[in-house]
UniProtKB/TrEMBL annotation:
GO terms for molecular function: oxidoreductase activity. This is Nitroreductase. It comes from the Bacteria. Residues 9-159 form the Nitroreductase domain. Pfam families: Nitroreductase. Keywords: Flavoprotein, FMN, NADP, Oxidoreductase.
Amino acid sequence: MTATIELMRQHRSIRKFASKAIAPEQLSAIMAAAQSASSSSFLQASSVIRITDQALRQQVMALCGNQAYVGSAAEFWVFCADFHRHLQWVPEARTGFAEQLLIGAIDTALMGQNAITAAESLGLGGVFIGAVRNQPHELSRLLGLPQGVIPLFGLCLGYPAQDPEPKPRLPADMMFMENGYQPHHDEARMAEYDAQVRHYYQTRSGGNKDTTWTGQIADTLAREARPFMLNFLHEQGFCLK
Ligand SMILES: Cc1cc2nc3c(=O)[nH]c(=O)nc-3n(C[C@H](O)[C@H](O)[C@H](O)COP(=O)(O)O)c2cc1C
């Protein structure tokens, strides 16, 4: 095992932060690590907006379901897929393809993961915030996002004021397959994992709840998933063809 793998295996989202700023050289290092992520066709189809204005941060927090840590983390960054830049430098560029939504989302997610891993290596912690997509029209107006730019996720970063246990993941052989798709129907294994997740939620330091993995999935996937998203994507010039 390497120190990098050890660090990655210790990942857990942090939602309580000390009120201590992150030093500028650390911020620059995290940004450089994020920018070093691979990029599909080297399009570098991402922009990251750092919210440093406190009044603006409060407005962004309100649009993110009022999740307190969006307001209290030392840093809050909004990760966006960005094809506006390409159109600016190459106006004849052809955009709007569904494939480019995937490219923008993948490039940006890789940057985000690099950012949080770099931060964790510096003793910081963080949590991604998908709730930036709760009210995407309003957030886009607030941040002045032009055509070709969509907010994908936020990232809270700061010094941890909690030390939660890592959350148990699915058995590896349910997610890693060989030479083809292998559906998993082992109910006993799933019951075992459900019990492990229930135990995690009941004993974790950060507040307990009584649920299993399949229970949580049933709840989450019973709800509509931001049904306004397709319209928003079209309005911003994504997924038109
Ligand atoms: C794209 C993305 C969006 C997320 N959005 C939120 C969010 O809005 N609020 C939150 O508290 N956690 C959010 N999370 C954190 C997940 O809940 C968390 O990663 C997951 O439960 C696994 O826990 P762990 O990160 O502690 O291992 C998000 C994670 C990802 C990858």
